[in-house]
Amino acid sequence: MSDDNEQYPPQQHEDDIPNTGTANPLKTQLISHLLEERQDVQNRNPFDESEQFQRLCEACRRGDTEAVQFLISFEKVNINAVDRFDYPPLTLASLCGHYDVVKLLLENGAICERDTFQGERCLYNALNPRIRNLLLQYDYSKSSDPLQPWASGLSSLLARAPLDSTDVTILAYSSGSLHSFRLHKFLLSARSSWFRNKLNKARSPEGPGSEKVVKNVRLPNSMDARAFEIVVKYLYLADVKESNDDQVMVNLEHLSRKFEIEELWDEVMVEDRKKRKQKRTEAVGKAQDDMARWWERVLGERIQVPDVNKAKEVRVEQSNAVFADVVLMAEEDPEEEGGNRAAVLYPVHKGLLRSEYFAAMFNGMFREGQRLEEGEPLKIIPMDMTPAVLELVLSFLYSEKVDIPLEHALDCLMAAEELLLDRLKQKCSHVISSAGNNDDLPYSIYDVIRTGWLTRVRRLEEFGAKYIADRLELYLNDPELPELVAESADRIKARQETDTIEVVDDIRYYLGLRFKQRIGEEDPLFEGSLEDEEEEEEEDKDAVDDKDGWFEKQEKLQGELLDRIDELLENLKLDA
Amino acid sequence: MASRGPRGKIRPPRRGLVTDQVDFDEVWAVLAQSLGEIHHKNASALSFEALYRNAYKLVLKKYGDRLYNQVGQLVTEHLQYVAVRDVKPLVPSAVVTGTVGSAIEKRNGGSKFLEQLKAVWEDHQLCMSMITDVLMYMPHQNRVYCTDHKLPTTYATGMGLFREHILRNSQYKIGTALNKVILDQIQMEREGDIISHGPIKSCVHMLESLYETEEENDNEKVYLTSFENEFIDTSTEFYRAEAQKLLQECDAATYLRRVDKRLREERDRCADTISSLTAPRIQAVVEKELITNTIKEVMSMDSGIRSMLDHEKIVDLSLLYRLISRVDKHKNVLKDMACDRLIELGRNINSSLKTPPAPPPPQPQDISNPSTSGAAAVKEEKAASSATLMAIKWVNDVLALKDKYDRIWEQAWEKDKGIETAITRAFTKFINDLQEGPEYISLFIDHNLQRGIKGRTESEVDDVLDKAVILFKYLTDKDLFERHYKNHLSKRLLHNKSLSHDAEKQMISKLKVEVGVAFTSKLEGMFKDMHLSEEMTSEFRRKQQEGEALKIDLSVNVLTSTFWPAKAVGIDSKPCSYPPIVEEAREAFTAYYLQRHSGRKLIWKPNMGTADIKVAFKGRKHEINVSTFAMVILLAFNNVAPGESLSFTDLKSITMIPDEDLIRNLQSLAVAKSTRLLTKKPMSKDVKPTDVFSINESFSNPKIRFRIGVVALNRVENDKEKKETSDSVAKDRDQQIEAAVVRIMKQRKTLSHQQLVIEVIEQLKHRFAPDMGSIKRRIDSLIDREYLDRVEGSRETYQYLA
């Protein structure tokens, strides 16, 4: 755009005579450029007419964080699409001043790029400086990539904050002076086979039995320190930039071949901003793969202990094969009451345990925060979760590549809550609430709803209500249901004086939906609006001149169920 | 599809955190014990994971509020215990806080107290940050459910408890003691003791980290609410006393240095001992007590501003300026006192002229008195030149003063605009106090343009002239200066005394820059006259050579009478009868001139001219330059046989020269010893109408060429001239005021009196400062002559009558 700005104004002066456009090569060029740009904008921000997208836009206007969360998690709408006024949701939310919604959208990959029409418009429309700053924080280099939080977590290792987990000093020469880099052995090994070999050799120079803790590595003089600096940035996924120094560039080319990371060279050399971004995405993807593979290796090092009480005797040396600096321990649920509890020990890396919880743990003055003496084995920290869940958590922390099986999703969600891992929490609740109607839920629906309450995930409450509504006949006989209703009522009473009971409201709502859908599905002739309940009932009666009284039956069933809910409430002496 | 009924089975809730009941008391008991361990510094044995999990469980199960309260209580209990264990023994004894006890005891006691308090504080901070970590989950839960009843964070609560139970412990009054100790230590440091800053800084830091409420508003820091005011009060008291002490003990320069030092000390103190938040306030205290309240007294000391100015103490003056600038951006005190001294010095210069120590004392001589003797004339000349010397001395003194103040202004006062204006005002005041000011300045310029500039480079000349112009700028009566300048310039031009026309022109262009073209047009006219005359003379000569050659060479200066000062041109001088040979030339030129410029009147001024005559005494030829009158007199002797004489009356009838001029010329020809071409009978110094003159045959002079001057006109005006001058000046001014009034009224048609006066003053300010009375008189006179009229109904408004 900036190029055009320079060309455009003089054009206007010169073209006093109406121009056909073909006569002037500059103009043609300009037009084609603008068209290209428009194409670009359209690709990035397609027009979306779907109902979900409209609901998303509406939620953004209102500032309904829950609804936005719901829509982007479940409905898989494109959050960078535009409505018929060319507004993307992000712009709407920032215009209406809903900070939390803006944040949510940005975290989920909404794009706000400076130097683009939509980006500038979004910034310009931000209601207050706070939102504007938030938008700027998520400028293009970060925003469009859902892996961004993970990637920036990796690069923040270089900043050595909030926790300095570096464990090796790499020394390299450049033009006569020695440069040192404080780095992480595990990361170097994970990201580069050259370093993996080098560090392994250094660890056990004379084969098994001779392990020691590697603290320094001298690079051969052929590896220039200034070029190496760029390599380091690349490995840690920090921003890499071309150097002005030709010599550095020559060395960099050499190094990128040596370390088998030719794509670094490509990334540095790319001129075009968009292509560079693409290269960047590829680089992050590659890093993710590297880290996922590294996690597999780490997993290979786990130690199974049949009796948790014996776990204390396990020694994981500081010179371990995966350069772990702490051991996390998870206990299996006992197979039988009073039986031995098996445990699994995972040697892991503090640097990758990114959460407020771990930061406090390792930085604090508690046992976990104490420095290791030479020769002292790694500290073993028991975690309050099963090995399966801990593996999911760690896998998430290492590479974000994690498939959470429905079976563990609820436990994993609780674990994420305890460890203050919001993104993992979202992932888990996503898994649970996308469980299909026909899936057999491996845990009690009451647990799901209660977990929703405890962890403040509204999505789970709704899912639970829907789940119960769909099988209300069954649950109405369950003595647990009244308990749940009573709990829900308590929750509300604790909050404010009001008569509605959330869970009952939800159930009623989904019950309505359940029958409405059935009717819609069953009768292909029926074309009435499904949106208006009253209308539906009227038309129901018209249409229900039914063959075998199916509709009537359904209606009767619905009424019956509603009556039974009322009955339930009456028994609980609640009004709703 | 009717089969699509409810299906699946109901799973019973599992045992687990979600459904399990958590017994608060049980969990809390465990947690409380661990938190106690934190307080006893045994944290390294504790597992963060276990502590966190317990707290997490409680919060998750909605025991957050209870947990919060319990933790608060636990911390409170601990602090109460600490108060007794650690703080009670700390409470400083009377030795430390009281007035008894040596400085060393005080210092050590105080330091110990501060150190220990600091240790208690740091312990508490550390414990609180650990407890906050343990309770980290609490705000996460609160974020959603407790937004309306906002609880302060755990940490803030802990800080608040510290404030209540340690600092404000009602039993031990730690806070009061702390203030006292810090203030005492600072007092000691102010008195020159060395104290250690570290402990104070830590304790101040503590006060800064504590707030009055748990909302932690920045302006409610305990430091600000409890300490700062007391600090400011003690400091005010201290500096008030300090000011009195210093006033008694120090001279002004030392005083200023002390103040400067104090200011720096306080600034440093804010940086390394107490909080930088206090810097502006404490600076204000020092400034008020040590500068605002006392500076006048300091400056009036014997060693005050007077002596600093007189001895040009740049460093002191600069310090003074900086200190005063802190409290008063207009620096009025400094301005006033500096200018008072300046005016005083200026008046001294003025009055030293009135009683000049130098010989010979100038006596006003009335040269128009025909009985004035030759000796008196010589004396008069001396007096005149001594007046010139006086003028030069005055100008040089004033310039020296100006230079001095300029240096001070530049080096010490940062070229402050306000002060510059004040200095200008002061100079204007005393320069215009001296009546002769305009004349002296003109004389100074005259002197420098005549002789003074010989052998000087152009830039030196420029400097001198610039200085003269500076003084000129201060003059209010610029018209008076113009008058004098015209006189002096005319003499320089006519007597060919001006050594450099370039310098003259430079001077005029400088004046032009200052006051405009109107002021200098006449001066430039004078130059033009001289230039034209030169051309005319040479053309006249060329013409004469073509025709019948004249017997004498004639050079004529034709002067436009309005450009030149009447006195110089000698309006009232009478013509004389010229010898034929001269008369012939005069007529030839008159004819030539009138032919060239018809309709003009040419008046000859023999009193202004000179002539070169050739004469032989005792066979020795001389070429003598004499005045025109002297030439006429001498030529009269050409027709007299050698040895015979002519009486005064004879000469008078032959030459028709006015008495006064005749006497003056005869004085120089017959009385002055070295130029006695004529002998007089009887020999006396006076020339009397009864005297008889003959050629002095025995005259001799070693020089072949020499000059016989006429007794010169006085350089300094005598009383009569002064009166004349001032009369004509007054007349001139009246005319200018009238002209200005008419100009303004013509343009404005109607105008109020007030505004008219303002505009008149504005118009005339480059020439002189008209007084209100004369403006009023001129307006009245103009009304009388029907140029103006009062607007009916409002007496104070005039209208112009076309």
Query: For the record, what is the CATH homologous superfamily label of the largest domain in chain A?
Result: Potassium Channel Kv1.1, Chain A
Mean pLDDT of chain B equals 78
Spatial order of the strands in the main sheet of chain A? 4-6-5-7
Work out the radius of gyration of chain B. Answer: 49 Å
What is the tally of beta strands of chain A?
7
Query: What's the Cα radius of gyration of chain A?
Result: 30 Å
User: Helix count of chain B, per DSSP?
Assistant: 31
Per CATH, the architecture of the largest domain in chain A is 2-Layer Sandwich
Mean pLDDT of chain A: 80
Question: In one word, what is the shape of chain B?
Answer: elongated
**Spans of at least 5 consecutive residues with low confidence of chain A:** 1-23, 522-544
Largest interface: A-B, 46 and 38 residues
Strand runs of chain B, count: 9
Helix tally of chain A? 27
Span of the ends, CA to CA of chain A: 60 Å
Low confidence ranges of chain B = 1-6, 144-148, 357-377
- When the domains of chain B are counted, the total is 6
Question: How many structural domains does the protein architecture of chain A include?
Answer: 4
From the spread of the alpha carbons, the general shape of chain A counts as: flat
InterPro entries (chain A): ABTB1, Ankyrin_rpt, Ankyrin_rpt-contain_sf, BTB/POZ_dom, SKP1/BTB/POZ_sf
Protein name (chain A): Similar to BTB/POZ domain-containing protein 3 acc. no. Q10225
Pfam families (chain A): Ank_2, BTB
Keywords (chain A): ANK repeat, Repeat
Structure report:
The complex is a heterodimer of chains A (576) and B (802). Helices cover 57% and strands 6% of the residues of chain A. Chain A is α/β, with parallel strands linked by helices and 576 residues long. Chain A has four domains: 93 residues, Serine Threonine Protein Phosphatase 5, Tetratricopeptide repeat (Alpha Horseshoe); 147 residues, Potassium Channel Kv1.1, Chain A (2-Layer Sandwich); 118 residues, Potassium Channel Kv1.1, Chain A; 119 residues, no CATH class. Chain A is flat. Chain A starts with a helix and ends in a 5-residue tail after the last helix. In chain B, α8 runs parallel beside α10 and α29 packs across α31. In chain B, 33% of the residues are buried. Chain B contains 31 helices and nine strands. Chain B has 802 residues and is mainly alpha-helical.
